[in-house]
Amino acid sequence: MASSHNNMHSEAAKMEQIVTEFYAKSLQIILESRSPYMSSRNFSGEQTLSPSSSSSSSSSVRPRDKWFNLALRECPAALENCDLWRQSNSEPMVVDVILVQRPVGWDQVNFSPKRDLVRHFSSKERCLVGWSSDQEELGCEGKSEKIVERWIVQYESRKASDCSSGSRRSSNYALHNVYKKSILLLRSLYVTVRLLPGYNIFRDLNSSGQICTFTLGHRVSSFVEPFTRKEEAEFQRFGFTPVDTSSGRLCISVLYRSLPSDVCSEPSTPMSPQFIPDYVGKPIGGSTEEIPLPSYVTLLTVVIAIVTTPHFSPSPSPSPPIYIPGRHLSTGLLRSESAPFSLPAPKLANSPALSSKHRSPSPPLKITRSNTSRIDRSMGQIQTGEAIEKFHSFGKDDSRKSSGVKLSCNSSPQISFSRSSSRSFQDDFDDEYPCPFDVEDVDVTDSSSRPESFDQKGHLCEPLEPGGYPKKSQDAAVGAFVCMLKKAPPLRQDFSGSVNLSEASRPETWSSTTQEPRQISDATSSQQGVSVSITSFWSCSIKDNC
Amino acid sequence: MNCEVCQLKELEVEHYELREVLRCILHTIVFQRALGLVRPKDIDLELFEITYVQCGDAEVEKKIDEKIEQFISWVEKHPNKKSQICLSFYEVKSKQPSWFTNKIERLYWEQWYVNLNVSQLPRAHSIKSRHSKVVDPGESASEERSARRPALEASLRDVLFQIIKFVNEKKDHVPPISEGVIYFPFEITIPRKRSLENFNLVFDGRKIVFKVALRNYFLQFIGLCFWDGYDKENAADWASNHAQLMEELGS
Q1: Inter-chain contact A190–B40, Cβ cutoff 8 Å?
Q2: H-helix or E-strand spanning residue B186
Q3: Between B142-169 and B18-31, two packed helices, what is the crossing angle to 10 degrees?
Q4: B37 and A199 in contact by Cβ < 8 A?
Q5: Which of A33, A121, A291, A414 has the smallest C-beta neighbourhood within 10 Å, fewest atoms?
Q6: Can you tell me the distance from the alpha carbon of A351 to that of A347, in angstroms, rounded to the nearest whole number?
Q7: In this predicted model, what pLDDT tens digit does every residue of A44-66 receive, in sequence order?
Q8: B181 and B102 together in one domain
Q9: Where are the beta strands (DSSP E) in A164-310?
Q10: Which candidate in B33, B168, B177, B182 is best for mutational testing of the A interface (most A CBs within 10 A)?
Q11: Do B59 and B173 belong together in one domain?
């Protein structure tokens, strides 16, 4: 008799323990998937644990994990807030999940969701986590709070009269049965919390790298603050089938809102623009296709830096190799406002406009000139070398297709730098060879107002007629063009040496420029001031035409 | 003990959505029947804004994936058909081998029927989708697909809630948890061509796998071989008996 009484007493104690742990586990399941900073989702790599290892390595499984055979991650919020129900499991546990939306122009430094969540008030009668009372008001401090979910976990005690009539169903109330059904209920709870709309917000908060204008908070209390009728109409209810025990039943239910999708995927503070330093576009020098954009952004940045530096001057004083070549020319060109840079162009090979112009001698010259200006501005950037090589490769590849990228000394209209004849072609070419420092005719003409930029070039200094390239003799034009080429930094590893050589040989270059194109080309090749590939290319072109 | 049966709501899926949809449904069921110690694993679907839960057991994952691949292979051979996958939980009761029959007795206590209406992609795309997990079948039907997707996601959620409700409402038939057992033994049955090797019968909740029917079938076949064709009475009976047998045995 005493033994049966003891058994009943022990069973009651165990049942009470099951109920207590049921509260704790429920709270952990809910908060683990609603507290953005306290979730196992942040440790996705450690989420899996094979059952064999979990059962064999008991050291990795905490005692509370074994309750209901559900091992979850640490959830401090749950641990802090279940003390009340450890003392008395007759009180309902009400968990409000609150969506906090920050106002426009919020101060992200001062707003710390974590800080707000940590503040709490606890008492025997009421346990609050998340907000102090003065922040619960709507619109306080500009924040908008809205309860998106309300979970109610409750152990409804059965009346004494009902307990006595349940003897026939005592097998159902056996401890192992209650425990098994509690496990099933908590499994369902675990699945359900991930299917409700609030989980999407939680997941977005955890995974998004952006700063969101909203966050999730929670409030755990032992009483239910009733909603207004209007609010209640906005909620949907889902109730789990209660688990009957000998003295009551375990109940879980949830009221949840259907959140608009824009809350979850709401664009937040935009990411700051970033340069992509290692943008992978086309292989360097291996294709005539588009040049990666970020390289031009980098070039532009460099050029702007050059222009704005106090040391930048048109004087011939030595300067870092990257800045020396053609800086005087670049100054004038850079100060123009037209066409800062263009986006990567379509493939050159497929350009109908380009192909139609193959047979025209003048456009290539025009192109080269603009290319040279780009080279100048690029100040020895590798990408400029790419442009040159690409153009060179174009010239080589297409030499069969066209009368060539040729310099014709005798056909004056074709070599002219007039805007009318070649501008359209240049535009097409510019589209296909994207250039961050796209030179339009007006740029060159602007430089004419700055004669100092051409001082050292001697013959190149001749003022440009407004609205077009200087209408000079073909030889002079060719010479000027070659000068520009010479001032271009050497390609790639040849930069440092070739630049210095080009500068040192400038007077000689200028002196020979206006005389004989062939001599210029020969001088250029002999001086090794410019990439050998370009020089040889032009030398071949000149020889073909003359 | 009765066998509880749950017929899930039919889903209209496309071929490339099968894998994700089936993984979601099957794992959700198995997780809620894995009553041993588990550390759940959250999986986000790629095609839908749904997160489902796995029990974290590698064997379970492998078994489910294998069956899904078999089913997808079957679907490719039987395109544009309504099909059904059956997930059954059972208890192994006892083995009583006899001289003629090899009776393996499994006591099925729960069966879940996943009903699918699979629309097959064009042949060119189907070959591609076989070797990739999630494939965008093409741009031609993208607009229609994007309109279908929210409806399918909603339907999939309905199915998941249907599973949750069923698990909640019916708990008494679940066997007791055995020590050291993570999940109840289960099998996944997919449609396949009729085989003479195994015939399964479901009779009063007890499913007995036996090969007696195989014997009977051969006997009837032998009888047909000796039928001279003049006696048409037996032929009619044989045909009807054969049809009935096939119907009972199922695919």
Answers
A1: yes
A2: strand B186-189
A3: 10
A4: no
A5: A121
A6: 7
A7: 444 444 444 444 444 477 777 88
A8: yes
A9: 214-221, 235-239, 243-244, 248-257
A10: B168
A11: yes
Least confident of A59-63, A81-85, A442-446: A442-446
Number of domains in chain B: 2
* B225 shares a domain with B109: no
pLDDT band at B225 (very low <50, low <70, confident <90, very high): low
Amino acid at B172: D
Residue A160's pLDDT band (cuts 50, 70, 90): low
Domain identity same for B181 and B206: no
Q: Is 70 exceeded by the pLDDT of residue A227?
A: yes
Q: Which residues of A touch B56 (CB under 8 A)?
A: 47-51
Q: Based on the fold, state whether residues B171 and B218 are members of the same structural domain.
A: no
Mutate: best of A25, A182, A191, A238, partner B, most B CBs <10 A: A191
> Which whole number is the average pLDDT over B178-186?
87
- In a shared domain, residues B61 and B127: yes
Q: Are A217 and A130 in contact (CB under 8 A)?
A: yes
Owning domain of residue B225: 196-251
* Dihedral, CA of residue B143, residue B144, residue B146 and residue B150, to nearest 10: 150
CA-nearest of A40, A42, A34, A127 to A80 is: A127
The tokens of A487 are what?
């001032």
Q: Tell me the average pLDDT of chain A.
A: 62
Please report, for the domain that includes residue B81, its CATH number: 3.30.900
Pairwise CA distance, residues A428 & A434, whole Å: 10
Residue whose entry in the numeric block shows the structure tokens 């009779």 = B203
Q: Which helix (H) or strand (E) holds A87?
A: helix A83-87
Residues of B in contact with A66 (CB under 8 A): 37
> The dihedral of CA A239, A245, A249, A254: what is its sign?
negative
Statement: residue B127 has pLDDT above 90? no
Q: How big is the A-B interface in CB pairs under 8 Å?
A: 106
For the stretch A266-302, pLDDT in tens is: 444 545 555 666 666 655 554 544 555 556 667 777 7
Residue ending a domain, choose from B141, B167, B191? B191
What is the distance between the alpha carbons of residues A436 and A375, in angstroms, rounded to a whole number?
Answer: 10
Burial environment of residue A69 by CB neighbours within 10 A (0 to 12, 13 to 18, 19 or more): buried
CB A29 within 8 A of CB B13: no
Range scoring the smallest mean pLDDT among A294-303, A324-333, A478-487: A324-333
pLDDT confidence bin for A122, thresholds 50/70/90: very low
One domain for residues B177 and B95: yes
Domain boundary among B168, B191, B214: B191
Distance of alpha carbon A440 from alpha carbon A384, whole angstroms: 18
Residue A370's pLDDT is what?
43
Q: Return d(Cα A253, Cα A240) in angstroms, integer.
A: 6
Is 70 exceeded by the pLDDT of residue A475?
yes
Residues of B contacting chain A (CB within 8 angstroms): 28, 31-32, 34-42, 44, 49-53, 55-58, 157, 160-161, 164, 167-169, 171-172, 174, 176-177, 180, 182
Q: Are strands A120-122 and A235-239 parallel, antiparallel or unpaired?
A: unpaired
Task: Based on the fold, state whether residues B69 and B96 are members of the same structural domain.
Answer: yes
Residues of B in contact with A65 (CB under 8 A): 37, 39
**What's the pLDDT tens digit per position in A174-209?**
888 999 999 999 999 999 999 999 999 898 888 766
pLDDT of residue B180: 82
Prediction ipTM score: 0.73
